[in-house]
């Protein structure tokens, strides 16, 4: 089969690899019909290269048709249409039963000190072959795959794999009071969808912050008040402008949908790039002990949110030695929630919004739909924010 493989920094290729097979009774094999390109994939493209191995199959936002199931999978059969969550979880352990499948005790990557295994996402999370491929082996298929109805196009459901539950959890963790205010930093796919979800969940004011014209336009079209970073001479001016909309206090909650690759962090960017130039054996050890993030967005969130407010961190962070302004965070009495989305926890709540009325606008959420063979160009385009790329779907 054809699959998108990681070969090095900013180097992905579509190659022929062996077809997946059933290896465990709880496996399924799914023929992929759509697979998303995620901002988290870009971290592998550049920042998290020390944890990658040439030939790793990428992708964690797939859906498709079940081809085969193992003897231990009772609720799926060949021909079922399914969305595959990005995390791999058993559904039976204490963590799964308590709504935390990203911490599944069956698939935890304990050797790396990490949570549940993820599709297509570094050795830290199990180096499990991902879903940017023609076929995918799905471990723990007795729990993970979400069956969806026939009829609507893939675009209606494919975002259940990651975008929708991640944005939903970001808003839920933000705890925006009914009629309250929330600012979303970063209007890529997750930030954009978080704005939409905040609106349908009753936020009174939603503010979106970015510096990419197309992203600002998309959320503005849906009634979000936008702030273009390029129009402010300093972070202080931006914060003042948003506070002016919130009686001088700042929003009740701030969602950081940017993460480790924030703009405006030149020193951290240099450190990340320098680590990536070292031999892989050395760079991996250094990254595990001394890695840092570009924290511009997080520092803005800390300054911007009102006292006693909540920060919801949904952008991926991977640093181990990040300096944080704990004095400010303690003095402002902030609440902070973060983490990978617990997909199955939220799926049932989200499904009623995936109706013909399409209140979240999933049917036209993708800006680009490309064949799998165009993956190298898609990665480059998305990483450079070219051609108006906000969300890319690949079709084998």
How would you concisely characterize the structure shown here?
The protein is 27% helix and 19% strand. It has 12 helices and 16 strands.
3D structure, described in words:
This protein is of the alpha/beta class and 396 residues long. Helices cover 27% and strands 19% of the residues. It has 12 helices and 16 strands. The protein has helices spanning 39-45, 94-97, 163-174, 189-200, 213-220, 235-243, 266-277, 280-290, 296-304, 326-331, 343-350, 375-383, and strands at 2-8, 11-16, 28-37, 56-57, 62-69, 81-83, 135-138, 146-147, 181-185, 205-210, 225-228, 253-256, 310-313, 335-338, 368-371, 392-395. The strands form 3 sheets. Strands 3, 5, 6, 7, 8, 15 and 16 form a 7-stranded mixed beta sheet that branches. A 6-stranded parallel beta sheet has the order 11-10-9-12-13-14, sandwiched between helices. Helix 10 (326-331) links the parallel strand 13 and strand 14. Helix 3 crosses helix 11. The chain is globular. The N and C termini lie close together (10 Å).
């Amino acid at each position: 089969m054809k699959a998108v493989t990681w070969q090095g920094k900013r180097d992905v290729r579509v190659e022929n690899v062996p077809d997946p097979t059933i290896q465990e009774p709880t496996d399924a094999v799914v023929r992929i019909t759509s697979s998303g390109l995620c901002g988290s994939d870009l971290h592998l493209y550049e920042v998290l290269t020390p944890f990658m191995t040439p030939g790793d199959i990428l992708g964690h936002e797939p859906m498709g048709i079940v081809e085969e199931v193992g003897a231990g999978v009772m609720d799926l059969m060949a021909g079922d249409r399914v969305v595959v969550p990005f995390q791999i979880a058993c559904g039976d352990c204490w963590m799964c039963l308590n709504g935390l499948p990203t911490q599944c005790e069956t698939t935890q990557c304990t050797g790396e000190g990490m949570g549940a295994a993820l599709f297509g996402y570094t050795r830290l999370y199990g180096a499990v072959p991902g879903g940017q491929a023609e076929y995918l082996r799905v471990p723990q298929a007795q729990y993970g795959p979400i069956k969806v109805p026939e009829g609507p196009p893939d675009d209606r459901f494919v975002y259940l794999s990651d975008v929708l539950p991640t944005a939903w959890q970001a808003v839920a963790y933000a705890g925006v009071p009914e009629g309250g205010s929330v600012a979303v930093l970063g209007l890529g796919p997750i930030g954009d969808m978080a704005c939409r979800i905040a609106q349908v969940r009753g936020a009174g004011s939603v503010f979106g912050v970015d510096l990419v014209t197309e992203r600002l336009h998309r959320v503005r079209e849906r009634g979000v008040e936008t702030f273009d970073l390029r129009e402010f001479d300093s972070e202080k001016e931006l914060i003042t402008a948003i506070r002016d909309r919130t009686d001088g206090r700042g929003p009740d909650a701030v969602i950081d949908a940017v993460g480790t690759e924030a703009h405006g962090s030149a020193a951290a960017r240099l450190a990340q790039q320098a680590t990536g130039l070292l031999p892989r054996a050395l760079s991996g050890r250094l990254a595990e002990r001394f890695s840092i993030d570009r924290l511009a967005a997080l520092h803005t969130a800390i300054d911007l949110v009102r006292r006693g407010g909540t920060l919801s961190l949904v952008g991926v962070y991977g640093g181990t030695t990040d300096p944080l302004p704990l004095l400010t965070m303690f003095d402002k009495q902030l609440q902070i929630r973060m983490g990978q989305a617990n997909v199955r926890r939220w799926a049932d709540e989200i499904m009623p919004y995936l109706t013909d009325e399409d209140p979240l606008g999933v049917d036209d959420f993708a800006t680009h739909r490309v064949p799998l063979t165009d993956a190298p160009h898609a990665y480059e385009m998305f990483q450079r924010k070219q051609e108006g790329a906000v969300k890319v779907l690949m079709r084998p």
